[in-house]
């Protein structure tokens, strides 16, 4: 094994991190934009006269989905070119990898999720061109909420890149920084997709029943808000891992504990995020179809989402035990 | 760093606990969410049956939760007993 000096190791880690960052980050936005374009084609085939409006709407929706990939590109370029201007230690290498993984993985869910409302909006425009204003507004609101997990990931990546970790001892903290990246990045997958599912069905519902715009948007926002909670748990565990300076230790176990905490909360956020999205999706669809039952539907949605959230809470408990008790 | 037998066991146990609870949370999350969604659909179609439908939803979600509980148990075993 060659003996690399610190600067080379950090550069090595930065380049690998940049690769993961944009490689993974490109997945979600492309999938979401493809979904949007597919439904735009279907919409144009059903209502050729409105093809100009549908195309414009498709491009706007795709631009919002693209933003997650742009965040990933920015972080990748920062990883390749920036000199953070601080004392480099081997910890900078692990924070570079953590930052790359965080933004790369975190962009997947938001990219896919933002594609759903845009696609349904294009389809809805073809069926009900008269409500294009409401549909576009709803699509933009829904997509914007859907981008929040990618924004959380970018915040954590920027913190990992630019915060000064040089005072911390190398041994457990190299794993804590990678765990911090994984925690937010992975949890963002579920929340991004879940928020998008709710937004998609809200655009579909408004196209079917334009009179129900108010309650549908409200239910969508409530459903999306609950759907974002796993990403917030992930963000919380990331902050704990970054800010709790783990004391020096020579054992491998002390390093595996924070890494395992990050993996646990990260993966643990995926399922509940998507599940909450399913629940919100059907609740919003049926608020649009049966407006009198909006109250009962919202209540049922919240109960269902709360039960679905339970495994995210188990994952957070196990993460916190790994960080604080062991 | 010196990696001894006990240390390696503990490191593997912690990593295993994290993977167990992490991956184990995916399935119940998606499954229970799907149940919740279909229950909302059913209540939208037949609001009069809201009580029965909510009960069915909760029973279904509880069964779906079982594998998540197995993961939690294994994670806790790995953390505290091994």
Features:
heterodimer; A: 326 residues; mainly alpha; 86% helix; 0% strand; B: 82 residues; F1FO ATP Synthase; rod-shaped
Supply the number of helical segments of chain B. 3
CATH class of chain B: Mainly Alpha
* DSSP, total strands of chain B: 0
Element-by-element helix/strand order of chain B? HHH
Looking at CATH, the homologous superfamily of chain A is lithium bound rotor ring of v- atpase
If classified by CATH, what would the architecture of chain A be?
Up-down Bundle
For the biggest sheet of chain A, the summary is: none
Q: Whole-number average pLDDT of chain A?
A: 92
User: Which class do the helix and strand fractions of chain B yield?
Assistant: mainly alpha
Number of helices of chain A: 10
List the helices and strands and how they pair.
The complex is a heterodimer of chains A (326) and B (82).
Chain A: H1 6-46, H2 51-81, H3 90-127, H4 132-146, H5 148-162, H6 170-208, H7 213-243, H8 252-289, H9 294-308, H10 310-325
Chain B: H1 5-24, H2 26-45, H3 50-80
Describe the structure.
- The complex is a heterodimer of chains A (326) and B (82).
- With 326 residues, chain A is mostly helical.
- Chain A has a single domain (7-325), classed as lithium bound rotor ring of v- atpase (Four Helix Bundle (Hemerythrin (Met), subunit A), Up-down Bundle).
- Chain A has 10 helices and no strands.
- Chain A has helices spanning 6-46, 51-81, 90-127, 132-146, 148-162, 170-208, 213-243, 252-289, 294-308, 310-325.
- In chain A, helix 2 runs antiparallel to helix 3, helix 5 packs antiparallel against helix 6 and helix 8 (252-289) runs antiparallel to helix 9 (294-308).
- With 82 residues, chain B is an all-alpha fold.
- Chain B has one domain (5-80): F1F0 ATP synthase subunit C (F1FO ATP Synthase, Up-down Bundle), CATH 1.20.20.
- The mean pLDDT of chain B is 91.
- Chains A and B meet through helix 6, helix 8, helix 9 and helix 10 of A and helix 1, helix 2 and helix 3 of B.
């Amino acid at each position: 094994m060659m003996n690399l000096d610190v600067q080379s190791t950090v550069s090595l880690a930065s380049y690998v991190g940049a690769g993961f960052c944009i490689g993974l980050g490109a997945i979600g936005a492309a999938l979401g934009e493809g979904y949007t374009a597919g439904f735009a084609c279907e919409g144009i085939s059903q209502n050729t006269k409105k093809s100009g409006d549908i195309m414009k709407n498709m491009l706007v929706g795709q631009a919002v989905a693209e933003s997650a990939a742009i965040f990933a590109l920015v972080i990748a370029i920062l990883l390749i070119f920036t000199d953070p201007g601080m004392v480099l230690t081997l910890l900078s290498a692990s924070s570079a990898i953590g930052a790359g993984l965080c933004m790369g993985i975190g962009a997947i869910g938001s990219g896919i999720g933002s594609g759903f409302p845009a696609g349904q909006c294009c389809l809805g425009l073809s069926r009900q061109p008269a409500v294009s204003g409401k549909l576009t507004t709803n699509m933009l609101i829904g997509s914007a909420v859907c981008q929040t997990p990618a924004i959380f990931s970018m915040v954590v990546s920027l913190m990992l890149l630019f915060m000064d970790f040089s005072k911390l001892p190398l041994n457990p903290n190299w794993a804590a920084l990678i765990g911090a990246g994984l925690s937010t990045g992975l949890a963002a997958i579920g929340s991004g997709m879940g928020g998008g599912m709710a937004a998609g069905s809200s655009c579909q519902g408004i196209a079917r029943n334009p009179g129900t715009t108010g309650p549908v948007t409200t239910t969508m926002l409530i459903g999306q808000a609950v759907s974002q909670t796993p990403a917030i748990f992930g963000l919380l565990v990331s902050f704990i891992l970054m800010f709790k300076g783990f004391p020096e230790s020579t054992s491998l176990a002390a390093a595996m504990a924070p890494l395992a905490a990050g993996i646990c909360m990260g993966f643990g956020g995926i399922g509940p995020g998507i599940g909450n999205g399913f629940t919100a999706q059907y609740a919003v669809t049926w608020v649009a179809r049966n407006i009198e039952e909006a109250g009962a539907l919202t209540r049922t949605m919240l109960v269902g989402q709360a039960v679905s959230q339970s495994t995210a809470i188990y994952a957070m408990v196990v993460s916190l035990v790994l960080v604080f008790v062991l | 760093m010196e990696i001894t037998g006990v240390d390696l066991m503990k490191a593997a146990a912690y990593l295993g606990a994290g993977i167990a609870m992490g991956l184990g949370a995916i399935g119940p999350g998606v499954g229970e969410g799907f149940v919740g969604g279909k229950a909302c659909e059913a209540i939208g179609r037949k609001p009069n049956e809201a009580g029965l439908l909510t009960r069915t939803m909760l029973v279904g979600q509880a069964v779906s939760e079982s594998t998540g509980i197995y993961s939690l148990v294994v994670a806790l075993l790995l953390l505290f007993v091994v």
